[in-house]
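Data card: per-record layout.
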Amino acid sequence: MSELEQLREENARLKEENEKLQLEVMCRRSFSDSPDLQDAYDRRQKAISVDIPAVGQRVKVVNPGSKYNSKDFESSFSEFSEDFSDTVAANAMGNIVATAEHFKKQGTWVFLVRFDNKSCVAMARKGIEPTLWVGQSVGITNIRHKYTAKDFAETFPGKELVNNCNNGQKGVILQIVPHYKNSKLEVFLVAINSGGKCVVMNGKGLTPRDPPGLAPFIRQKEAEQKAAEEAAAAAATAETADAEPESEKREREDEGEEEGEIKRAKEDANE
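The structure for this 271-residue chain is written out next.
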């Protein structure tokens, strides 16, 4: 291994260790109800801004009108055609089970989401939003969707996995990995009991839980971003208004040259 490769490997290891430490700090602060709002906000923005969410990812509907006629994508999603539906409600939750490029719009992706009522709907990206990510505070809302701890001992080595948890219990997502038997299904390692122990959950058993103060913090950030965009737009408009059109600039230069020639001609005549 070359020196450069060693440095890259060491850099990657240090980044991973740093992320683990940051996550541990965030986990402890979340359980003490004194979260790092900036970190929570940054993780949220990173998760919801992904252009193409992965198959298996848990999502919710944010715009029910941003869906496609599922029958139009029957050839792309033939495996799920028996469960096709064109009806979906705002805030409905489900998992992405397949993706395909739009047959008429190159570069536009269509997401087939299997909702918790078993129906499958073809959605546009702007119609859905990821709901669960690493570092997020959650509530355990359905313990029927908990996995047996011993089945994931190899998946999450070094973690104290337990089977006992209760509906309504608070947790923090530490890891998200594909299920070892079904790569289209995400498995969530959730810290409970102030982070000392963990349970392994299906996303259906979890509900996002915004830490105290995050909602107003998000509104503040959105207001700041809007103000910055408006200021930038106003500055661009002012710069455009102040800028002299090229045609007028050439005309002014031509007039200046003409006046200069006349002045020189008069000086020559006087001599």
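Known properties of this structure: The first strand starts at residue 58 and ends at 61. The CA atoms of residues 4 and 10 lie 10 Å apart.

See the next section for split statistics.
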